[in-house]
Amino acid sequence: MRAPLALACLLLFFGCSDSSPDAPEPEPKTIVVRSDGSGDQPNIQAAIDAASNGDEIVLADTLFTGDGNRDLDFHGKEIVIRSQSDDPWKCTIDCEGTVAEPHRAFRFHTRENRKSIVRGITIKNGYTPDAGGAVRCERKTSPLFKNVIFRSNASMAVFVTAASPLFDLCLFWDNPAGAVTCSDSSTVKFTGSNFANNQLQGSGAAMAVLNSAAEIVSCRIGDNMATVGGGAIFAAGNSDVRAKLTLTGCDFAWNSAGSHGGALHTVRTDLNMDRCEFLSNSAVAAGGAIYLDSETRGTIANSLFTRSNQDAEGAALTWGFQSTLAVENSIVVNGLTPVTCNAVGASPRFICSDIYPADAWTGCIEDQLTQDGNFSADPRFCDSALADFTVTADSPCAPTGPCGQVGPNGVGCETPFLVKQRRR
């Protein structure tokens, strides 16, 4: 009789349950938020507080303002905040931030990861005294932003410090104090995103990469203006941590800098670029397209520099102090002085590249024509006036040439839209 009695006592003590390690997880729930408070929760922050991992917060296609709809904190949760339509032009968080009343949209600082997602909304008019007027990512967080518009935000729209966010299909547009800064050993990735008409009193109006790493893939970066260096991007390391910048399939056009690097200015940076185009960028001092400063190294491959990227000497590319970056399988059709060297130890090396016309092989690269497969010939673009930089089948830059394909596009003569889609 003792065994049954003991079993009964154990059941009473621990209780009975039908749960097991294989019991299904609770079904994710959808929490609807409307700007008039009539949804499942009265505002966005209340919805976040009520949510559990895996839940989705759906914002009605309207304008969200005021307390509870700004200064938002995920509290480390793996949740999605998205618009009802997934169309950022229909759903906006207006932070209404000012010097007197600073506000941003989101701060990520508590273990948020790739399952912490913001999708299909516009964030505008953020301002905070510290950087990150729209969004601030800190402390090794890694949220995902997909199809988000960052518009008219001050105090640097997005600030990343010691974090690793991903931005996919986003638009950074008309931010008057710069679009993005990443610092303190951050690792940031951008895919399929656009940076347009951002301005900055400083360096890097579209992006500043400071002692950090940035990977930028299939992005279009145009009409950005910085008063100092890097009209679009400024990347800089220091004696302890080098910056790392990877650019693949990107276009840079009509960016401008008040001093160096109309599109890009690098300092102590490992730069690796493939299949990029630089059109009509300008700098007041040096490097109409790119200024490679202070120990920059790496490779530019399969890229194009044309349509008069200009600095004070008419150059598209300028090598600075002890910079040793190589250019491979690329096309430079950019006036008679497309490449310059303006400091001790500047050492460009061209391989299998076409600089046209022949008189443009001058200055610090004059002895490289006919070396390492280099040549000077009309690349025979299909229609440069319409920005179709594919080449004819008999072009010296076609894949059938001795160096294989030179430049980013190959043989085509299609419409500009189809050209871009194919290259990416």
Describe the structure.
The chain has 2 domains: 28-172, Pectate Lyase C-like; 178-424. The protein contains 3 helices and 41 strands. It has a 13-stranded parallel beta sheet with strand order 1-2-4-7-10-13-16-20-24-28-32-35-38, with helices on one face. A 12-stranded parallel beta sheet has the order 3-5-8-11-14-17-21-25-29-33-36-39, with no helix packed on it. A 10-stranded parallel beta sheet has the order 6-9-12-15-19-23-27-31-34-37, with no helix packed on it. The termini are far apart. Residues 1-19 have low confidence and may be disordered.
Describe the protein's topology.
Layout lengths: L1 H13 L15 E4 L10 H7 L5 E4 L3 E2 L15 E4 L8 E3 L11 E3 L8 E3 L2 E3 L10 E3 L6 E3 L2 E3 L6 E4 L4 E3 L2 E3 L6 E4 L3 E5 L2 E3 L2 E2 L6 E4 L2 E5 L2 E3 L2 E2 L6 E4 L6 E6 L2 E3 L2 E2 L6 E4 L1 E6 L2 E3 L2 E2 L6 E4 L3 E5 L2 E3 L10 E3 L6 E3 L2 E3 L5 E3 L7 E3 L2 E2 L25 E3 L4 E4 L24 H8 L1
Parallel strand pairs: 1-2, 2-4, 3-5, 4-7, 5-8, 6-9, 7-10, 8-11, 9-12, 10-13, 11-14, 12-15, 13-16, 14-17, 15-19, 16-20, 17-21, 18-22, 19-23, 20-24, 21-25, 22-26, 23-27, 24-28, 25-29, 26-30, 27-31, 28-32, 29-33, 31-34, 32-35, 33-36, 34-37, 35-38, 36-39
Antiparallel strand pairs: 40-41
Helix content: under 10%
What is the count of DSSP helices, taking H or I runs of 4+ residues?
3
Rg result: 26 Å
| Apparent shape | elongated
Biggest sheet record: 13 strands, parallel
Low-confidence stretches: 1-19
Going across the major beta sheet, what is the strand order?
Answer: 1-2-4-7-10-13-16-20-24-28-32-35-38
Query: What is the number of strand segments?
Result: 41
Class per helix and strand makeup: mainly beta
Beta fraction of the residues? 25-35%
Number of domains: 2
Mean pLDDT: 92
From the N-terminal CA to the C-terminal CA, the straight-line distance is: 78 Å
